[in-house]
Amino acid sequence: MESLKGKKVLLIGASGGIGTRLTKLLTGSGAIVFITGRNQDKLAAAGEQAGIPSNRQFLLDLTNETAVFDTIAAIQQDGPVDILINAAGIGIIKSMDTLTTEDFIKTLQVNLIGSFWVTKAILPAMKEAKKGLIIHIPGVLGKVPMAGAAAYSASKYGLVGMMQSIREELKRTEIRITNLFLGGVDSPFWDTIDLRVQRDKMVVAEEAAKAIWFLCQQPASGVVSEMVLQPFNHQAI
């Protein structure tokens, strides 16, 4: 396993249930962590819990292209990021009868286009350094569809295809790409979703965070292309 001590890590979506726990694991391992979130209060709370100074906390809206590129440029002005973790995303679960065009576009904008901008912004410095690790989290619905998840699955299937294509472009470099397919995780993600779910049978957020933390330490001589983590009693893959 590779040590995280002194590694420069950018965590997109640090103010969520998984992100706040992951931030503490990363800083506890000696990483130099930069975090982003779309809610200032939650972002500040996550930073305070993990001991991350305010100059390494960035309020970021993934639907704003200029903000994405400017934020990542500021983070990389003193050197490239070693590890990018994109844990941000939104979930709109609705049947086709109630799913609106705005719902569909918003989901693609955050989960797919935002991920495109983040990846595009981070890659030039990684290419110059000839190394790096990019971790995205398509989730199980990026492999197995579910009723009511037309917009969400479209965004996540698109993310998987995009990153597989980018991986082909990077074959002659030491930039590695990992996709994490998380199943149901008991996190605030479900708070605003009108769907009957058994949250007590989901993967706990702490364990999901540990899985990402583990992936950050994968050996430099290899790469974990994909990892699947889901509740054993709701196994879909």
Question: Can you tag this structure with a few keywords?
Answer:
7-stranded parallel β-sheet, 6 helices, single chain, 40% helix, alpha/beta, two-stranded parallel sheet
Widest sheet: strand ordering:
3-2-1-4-5-6-9
Helix-strand string: EHEHEHEHEHEEEHE
The low-confidence runs, each spanning 5 or more residues with pLDDT under 50, are: none
Give the number of helices: 6
Write down the Rg.
17 Å
Strand content: 15-25%
In total, the number of strands is: 9
Residues in helix, %: 40-55%
Structural class: alpha/beta
Outline type: globular
Largest sheet: 7 strands, parallel
Distance between the termini: 27 Å
Mean pLDDT across all amino acids: 90
Topology:
Layout: E1 8-12, H1 17-28, E2 32-37, H2 40-50, E3 57-59, H3 65-75, E4 83-86, H4 101-129, E5 131-136, H5 150-169, E6 174-182, E7 185-186, E8 203-204, H6 205-216, E9 226-229
Helix pairs in contact: 1-2, 1-6, 3-4, 4-5
